[in-house]
Automatic annotation (TrEMBL):
Gene3D superfamilies: D-Amino Acid Oxidase, subunit A, domain 2, FAD/NAD(P)-binding domain. Residues 8-345 form the FAD dependent oxidoreductase domain. Keywords: Oxidoreductase. Its EC number is 1.-.-.-. It comes from Pseudomonas citrulli. GO terms for molecular function: oxidoreductase activity. This is FAD-dependent oxidoreductase. The keyword Hydrolase does not apply.
Length: 371
């Protein structure tokens, strides 16, 4: 190709994943051009919950490493990022879920995570607004919250990063074609634009999962931790159909974020009353006082989900020069720093900070043709 290079690396997508990748590349001294279509994807729509998840070893490794990186960054984040280390309190509604909490506790403790089992009485002490009768819970102390759009903007505010509002219509290895027909060329291209990635790479096994969110007015009674039901991992979100689970996050403003819902097979961004009502009923079942608050705004977003729930991070095996950072589903904000570190280590052919194999695109796209 004879085109002049417009940057060392072109990053497609200015959400939290693209921003984290661009920041890590710029810190290595590379000139980075970030192209974004301005569609305001999952980063703008999500809750910004930073949490360690241990559904499988690869998810635990990625989220735990990334939470450590977020905590390292915390002192540098401007106040607009609304970083808080408030912890996640997983709620057990019955003895079966408390047994799950105990299993998670032992697993996380064995991996060095600060956590604590909470019995019935201690749960009411920590969160007096919770309904009576809950069995207990598990407190993950290092979890936090973040206003992800502000964090992405902060990451992109670097001397070696240029941003351009543009829609990419085609990717050809190290080249990208814009909607106006112009081709841009770099040493490498990073695809980090969530569910839109399949428009440029139809072979990617990414499916949109629709989610609803609602934010309340200011809450007179304090909620201290992010409250998530253990049904989230035991049953509520394992089915293939529409599902809801209680997820209540206190914001620094005194408002409450309410989630969470999941729907497959739709790309309609409209708020659906029946799903919102189902989600709110679930939340008020755990926190009855929610019924007295006003909902200020409700909205939806789409998570980019891979078949195994893990992101695709690494070079596209059939498209030389194209690197993937996609498929994070609901863990994009949490795992952005880990994704960036993994990608940059591979790009520079360095030892990665954690084993990259579970996240490599080859698991879905096949080995490189020359292998």
């Amino acid at each position: 190709m004879s085109e002049a290079l417009v940057a060392d690396v072109i990053v497609i997508g200015a959400g939290i994943i693209g921003a984290a990748c661009a920041r890590s590349l710029a810190q290595r001294g590379l000139q980075v051009l970030v192209l974004d279509a301005g569609w305001h994807g999952a980063t703008a729509a999500g809750m910004g919950h930073l949490l360690v998840l241990d559904d499988n070893p690869a998810e635990l490794a990625l989220s735990q490493y990334s939470l450590r990186r977020w905590r390292e960054l915390a002192s540098s984040l401007p106040e607009t990022c609304a970083w808080r280390n408030n912890g996640t309190l997983w709620l057990a509604a019955n003895a079966e879920e408390m047994a799950v909490a105990h299993g998670k506790y032992l697993n996380l403790l064995a991996h060095g995570e600060a956590c604590e089992l909470v019995g019935r009485a201690a749960l009411r002490q920590r969160e007096p607004e919770l309904r009576e009768g809950l069995e207990g819970g598990l407190l993950i102390k290092g979890d936090g919250i973040l206003y992800a759009p502000a964090a992405a903007r902060w990451m992109l505010d670097a001397a070696l990063i240029r941003q351009q509002r543009a829609q990419v219509s085609e990717v050809d290895g190290r080249r990208v074609r814009l909607a106006d027909g112009r081709w841009l060329c770099a040493e490498a291209v990073v695809l980090a634009n969530g569910i839109q990635a399949t428009e440029l790479c139809p072979e990617l096994p990414i499916e949109p999962k629709k989610g609803h969110l609602l934010i309340t007015d200011r809450c007179p009674n304090r909620v201290s931790h992010t409250l998530v039901e253990l049904g989230y991992v035991t049953s509520a979100h394992t089915a293939s159909g529409p599902s809801v689970a209680c997820n209540i996050q206190p914001r620094p403003t005194g408002q409450l974020f309410i989630g969470a819902s999941r729907q497959f097979g739709t790309v309609d961004p409209q708020v659906e009353g029946w799903m919102l009502a189902k989600m709110l009923r679930r939340a008020t079942d755990y926190l009855p006082g929610l019924a007295r608050l006003n909902g200020i705004r409700a909205w939806t977003g789409f998570r980019a989900a891979s078949p195994d729930g893990l992101p695709l991070v690494g070079q596209h095996p059939q498209r030389q020069g194209l690197w993937l950072a996609v498929g994070h589903e609901g863990l994009g904000v949490t795992t952005a720093p880990a994704t960036a570190d993994l990608l940059v280590a591979q790009l520079f052919n360095e030892a990665p900070p954690l084993a990259p194999q579970p996240y490599l695109p080859q698991r879905f796209l096949g080995e490189p043709a020359h292998a």
